[in-house]
């Protein structure tokens, strides 16, 4: 049970949502945008966050689209992970999100909520980083479309009052060869030791990771090493490990040493499947 | 723009085929309202964290963990709880196969399996496995649960999940 009250609003347009946020913020109500809401409900139940108002985005049409527009796939932020994997317009993204949480939870969790969440795995962002997807953001100054790399550094960097409306991905990326691994300590449901998503474009392998450090990331330095033709596979992996952007995690899922062991194995599998051709 | 008093929100929802109107706190979970306001105690409170699945209900036919859904989100929706599934073949199969021990997880399993049967009546083994991973049985009755589920599905093949498991 959530031990405090908050107000609930369900705007039907982007403008209404933004105006609501501004209005509620001015009243000191500490508003939050709400999509699937699973993480907000959990944090609130634990008394870890105290929003005075939630703004439910699920009635905003632009946040519910999943369509091709010219050469782009457009996915609304309120599309659930289960719908995304069932419709499957973006196979790497489908394969990534079907490994998040469990099937019933994926009926509630949305792509926007996963990417903007505070729990640091945020695995749905990995395919977006690999495909240089663009993000449509709404805020006080209107709408803007920016590269995922401009707004996602370790986590989404939205300004107060902004929310994620849509994700746009070039259609050309959707049919590229890819691999995805999510390795857990045990079982098929739960947080990862290592999640690795990789795709190959123009004979170059791109990789992105979650569960390795305290944030998901794609590293150009690591990709340069992994694509260096002068190195053996073992040398690539040994040099890539040195270029991780932060200390390797130690938590209930596994120690840093164990994670590095699993990461090396996973990198080797990914390279084996994508190299050549 | 709609504005509500925080302590009391009017909502209307169809529960097990019956239209109900009720006032709820915005912070009330759907599980809490079903149990404490509507007296439908078949949906159990387990982890309250979206992990165990014993609070699973159907919202517009789709399995949802009611501990991670606000009651206000269910305004205007069709909700089915275990109380609405007394004639479900899934429930009968669980009884026949004695697919429970303490029974605390059983409502969630039955509701989830009923949802799967409604959406994918020809679900294969892989799809069944993916869906039922949403529920936990601490008594370890998984073998009997699997036996019960097999009796209501006739999987056509055991290869790939049906429609990506969804």
From TrEMBL, chain A:
Coiled coil: none annotated. The keyword rRNA-binding does not apply. InterPro entries: CO_DH_flav_C (IPR005107), CO_DH_flav_C_dom_sf (IPR036683), Diverse_Substr_Oxidored (IPR051312), FAD-bd_PCMH (IPR016166), FAD-bd_PCMH-like_sf (IPR036318), FAD-bd_PCMH_sub1 (IPR016167), FAD-bd_PCMH_sub2 (IPR016169), Mopterin_DH_FAD-bd (IPR002346). Pfam families: FAD_binding_5 (PF00941). Keywords: FAD, Flavoprotein, Oxidoreductase. Residues 1-174 form the FAD-binding PCMH-type domain. GO terms for molecular function: FAD binding; oxidoreductase activity. PROSITE patterns: FAD_PCMH (PS51387). PANTHER family: XANTHINE DEHYDROGENASE SUBUNIT C-RELATED (PTHR42659). This is Xanthine dehydrogenase. The lineage of its organism: Bacteria, Bacillati, Bacillota, Bacilli, Bacillales.
From TrEMBL, chain B:
The keyword Iron-sulfur applies. Residues 9-85 form the 2Fe-2S ferredoxin-type domain. This is (2Fe-2S)-binding protein. Pathway: Alkaloid degradation; nicotine degradation. It holds the Pfam family Fer2. One of its GO terms (molecular function) is oxidoreductase activity. Keywords: 2Fe-2S, Iron, Iron-sulfur, Metal-binding, Oxidoreductase. PANTHER family: OXIDOREDUCTASE WITH IRON-SULFUR SUBUNIT (PTHR44379), XANTHINE DEHYDROGENASE SUBUNIT E-RELATED (PTHR44379:SF7). It comes from Paenibacillus selenitireducens. It comes from the Bacteria.
């Amino acid at each position: 049970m959530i031990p405090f009250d908050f107000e609930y609003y369900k705007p039907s347009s982007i403008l209404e949502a933004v105006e609501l946020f501004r209005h509620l913020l001015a009243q000191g109500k500490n508003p939050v945008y709400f999509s699937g809401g699973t993480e907000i409900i959990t944090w609130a139940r634990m008394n870890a966050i105290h929003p005075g108002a939630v703004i439910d985005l699920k009635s905003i049409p632009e946040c519910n689209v999943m369509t091709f527009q010219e050469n782009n796939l457009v996915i609304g932020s309120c599309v659930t992970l289960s719908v995304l994997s069932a419709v499957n317009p973006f196979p790497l993204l489908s394969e990534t999100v079907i490994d998040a949480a469990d099937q019933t939870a994926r009926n509630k969790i949305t792509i926007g909520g996963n990417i903007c969440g505070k729990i640091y795995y945020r695995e749905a962002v990995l395919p977006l980083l690999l495909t240089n997807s663009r993000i449509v953001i709404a805020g006080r100054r209107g709408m803007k479309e920016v590269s995922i790399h401009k707004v996602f550094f370790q986590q989404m960097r939205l300004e107060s009052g902004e929310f994620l409306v849509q994700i746009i991905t070039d259609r050309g990326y959707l049919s590229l060869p890819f691999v995805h691994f999510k390795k857990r300590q045990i079982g098929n449901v739960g947080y990862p030791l290592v999640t690795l998503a990789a795709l190959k474009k123009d004979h170059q392998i791109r990789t992105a990771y979650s569960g390795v450090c305290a944030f998901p990331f794609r590293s150009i330095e690591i990709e340069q090493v992994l694509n260096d033709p002068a190195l053996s596979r073992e040398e690539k992996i040994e040099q890539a490990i040195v270029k991780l952007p932060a200390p390797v995690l130690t938590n209930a899922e596994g120690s840093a040493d164990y994670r590095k062991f699993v990461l090396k194995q996973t990198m080797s599998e990914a390279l084996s499947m994508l190299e050549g051709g | 723009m709609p504005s509500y008093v925080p302590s009391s929100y009017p909502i209307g929802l169809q529960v097990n085929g019956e239209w109900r109107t009720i006032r709820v706190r915005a912070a009330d979970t759907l599980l809490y309202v079903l149990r404490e306001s509507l007296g439908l105690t078949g949906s159990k409170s387990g982890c309250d964290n979206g992990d165990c699945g014993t609070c699973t209900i159907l919202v517009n036919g789709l399995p949802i963990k009611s501990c991670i859904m606000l009651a206000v989100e269910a305004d205007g929706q069709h909700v089915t709880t275990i109380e609405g599934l007394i004639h479900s073949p899934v429930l009968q199969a669980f009884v026949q196969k004695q697919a429970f021990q303490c029974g605390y997880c059983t409502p969630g399993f039955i509701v989830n399996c009923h949802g799967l049967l409604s959406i994918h009546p020809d679900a294969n083994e892989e799809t069944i496995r993916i869906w039922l991973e949403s529920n936990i049985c601490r008594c370890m009755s998984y073998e009997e649960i699997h036996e019960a589920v097999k009796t209501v599905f006739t999987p056509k093949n055991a290869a790939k999940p049906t429609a990506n498991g969804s």
